[in-house]
Write a structure and sequence with these properties.
Helix content is 17%, strand content 20%. It is an alpha/beta fold.
Length: 212
């Protein structure tokens, strides 16, 4: 594969949810989730523009299975905005689980977007909460800075990375997924379905962290 040539005036690295609870030993661990840290640290040294997201839930968040009598993690519930996977308690604001992985270099990150902090709405996407209409403000930030092409990495490929990529395309940004700097949950075939949908809207899978 050819090396990726960056346009530092318009390209941005979006680092999604590289937090302790999504890494091995965490409450909602992604297999090999901590393996993304080293390639992301290398990438953040190459991009002039770096943004990160951080899951940041209040205690008793409505997406937690423990908030629903008789429900178990990974079952579903119908909430005010539609179907919602119910998760183990994770990334509770101010806890160790919500903190970024200790080896992740935060210094190059110019903006950290916290999401999921509204008690009744979960948030996968870097751009919108799960009601699909409440914005995080990221799109406006990127547009005001003239940033048009997103390279997305982090956790997890089939949930927060996926929704961020889909919304990025819907909002008119160019989007590439750096799959070697991502890891997936793959819940009941969710990874294959996520890749199918992202490919269908033109998300670019040809780049990789190793190509920079």
């Amino acid at each position: 594969m050819p090396q990726v040539t960056l346009n530092q005036a318009r390209d941005v690295l979006l680092v999604v949810d590289v937090q302790n609870d999504f890494c091995p030993g965490g409450a909602l661990q992604v297999a090999e989730g901590d393996a993304v840290v080293a390639p992301i640290n290398r990438l953040t040294g190459l991009f002039a523009n770096v943004v990160a997201t951080q899951d940041w839930h209040p205690p008793g968040h409505h997406s937690f299975a423990a908030s629903h009598a008789g429900k178990q993690p990974f079952e579903s519930a119908v909430l005010s905005y539609g179907d919602q996977v119910l998760w183990p308690d994770h990334c509770v604001a101010g806890t160790h689980g919500a903190a970024f992985h200790s080896d992740l270099n935060l210094d190059p990150m110019q903006l950290i977007v916290r999401k999921g902090f509204r008690h009744d709405i979960d948030s996968y996407s870097a751009f919108f909460e799960n009601d699909r209409k409440t914005p995080t403000g990221l799109a406006g930030y990127l547009r005001e800075r003239g940033l048009e092409r997103l390279f997305i990495c982090g956790l997890a490929t089939d949930f927060c990375v996926f929704y961020s990529a889909m919304d990025g395309k819907r909002l008119g940004f160019e989007v590439a997924i750096l799959e070697d700097a991502c890891r997936a949950i793959d819940l009941d075939g969710s990874l294959d379905e996520a890749r199918r949908q992202m490919g269908g809207v033109g998300v670019d899978f040809s780049a990789a962290a190793a190509h920079f």
